[in-house]
Design a protein that fits this description.
With 219 residues, this protein is mainly alpha-helical. It is built from nine helices and no strands.
Length: 219
């Protein structure tokens, strides 16, 4: 077995393991960290396939930006893990069936399309070939609609994540920007008229501190 194939199997095993831990970890923060490991392993596989631009994009965009957003949402939502796990075993057979069906479908497609493809079949590329340029030309010509739809889906996901953090919770103080914009001066300051009262009489003079408090008995 050549080193490239060995590295591919190693990174693939790490990717599958970390992906399973994403859905089986009890702590949502741990799931997000396992997802980071999944992205790193997938980026390494892209590097083995000589797709450097996709690997760097996966690291910079998904790990550097999207995962930060995921962790922010997970920490802000205050997820009740015990409540989420209620009914887990009841829904496990259906989830296992759906997962197995997805795996079999993907395996069939990959085996049918790439099962007989060998590395020697790939065309020889010139020395100045840029996969970034080729990928950009392909995305913005043949797959431009799919690219725009994916961008809209990501935008909706970002807006939904922000909206979830703005839900009302008891015991948490938050600002209402619309009420602050519509405020008037009469809502902030109230002038109260109070009837005047006469000044009180001057207090009685205090007794002399130097005066004796008691007479001494005569001898």
């Amino acid at each position: 077995m050549d080193p490239t194939a060995l590295l591919f199997y190693i990174f693939s095993a790490v990717t599958v393991f970390s992906a399973l831990r994403v859905v089986t970890a009890r702590n949502p923060v741990h799931s997000a960290l396992y997802l980071v490991l999944t992205f790193f392993s997938a980026a390494a596989i892209w590097l083995l396939l000589r797709a450097e631009f996709l690997a760097i994009t996966l690291v910079l965009v998904y790990i550097g930006a999207v995962m930060v957003l995921f962790l922010f949402v997970v920490m802000m939502l205050d997820v009740n893990v015990d409540a989420m796990r209620q009914g887990f075993w009841k829904n496990l057979p259906v989830a296992a069936f759906v997962g197995a069906a997805v795996v079999l479908e993907l395996a069939a497609v990959l085996w049918h399309q790439f099962g007989t493809v060998k590395e020697s079949y790939a065309p020889r590329l010139p020395a100045d070939y840029s996969n970034t340029k080729a990928l950009g030309r392909l995305i913005y010509t043949e797959y431009v609609y799919a690219f725009e739809i994916a961008a809209v889906i990501l935008l909706v996901a970002i807006v939904a994540a922000i909206a979830l953090t703005l839900r009302r919770r008891t015991g948490v103080k938050s600002q209402n920007v619309s009420e602050q914009v519509r405020v008037r001066s009469t809502d902030r300051v109230r002038l109260v008229k109070m009837p005047g009262r006469p000044a009180s009489a001057p207090a009685a003079a205090a007794p002399d501190a130097a005066a004796p408090t008691a007479t001494e008995p005569q001898k």
